[in-house]
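Narrative of activities, Objective 1.

The group set out to show that a structural description can be obtained from nothing but a protein's sequence at a throughput compatible with the screening campaign. Below is one input-output pair from the validation batch, recorded exactly as produced.
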Amino acid sequence: MRITKRTNIAMRVLMFCGAHEGVLVTKAMVAEKCNTSESHLAQVIYKLAQLGYLYTQRGRSGGFTLARPMAEIVIGDIFREFESEQHNLECFADGDNTCPLVKGCRLRLTLKEALEAFYNRLDKETLDNLVCGNTALLELFVMPSCHSTRPLRTGTDRG
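Output recorded for this entry:
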């Protein structure tokens, strides 16, 4: 199974924010602990904020944090948002499908059912399930003392 790099990064960002719940974190912090570039992060953070999963605060003491409780962030929803643009198989593509078997192919239906089973399983998981009590993950996300985390300021700078 393959998922896109953007989906993978989105999950890393959300898990990192969940591990630092209530604290503004920075792209640099996430990039360091999640082994990804800040430019890739910027695109994913922007989309997560647009979808209402992250609260962002601009400026010198800016950063981002979860915009809703972890128990309300359903993993299947994240995957649908980030994977919906991707067609792994030509037969799922509406416009550029040139497969001559599309009208009589039962494999397409089987694959569609398998994909739904995949999403149905992910719908049973929340960010809370992935982060809370996961000592190994929390230990990976511990920040060295040279990084200061910023307490969440209340304000209206969302976006």
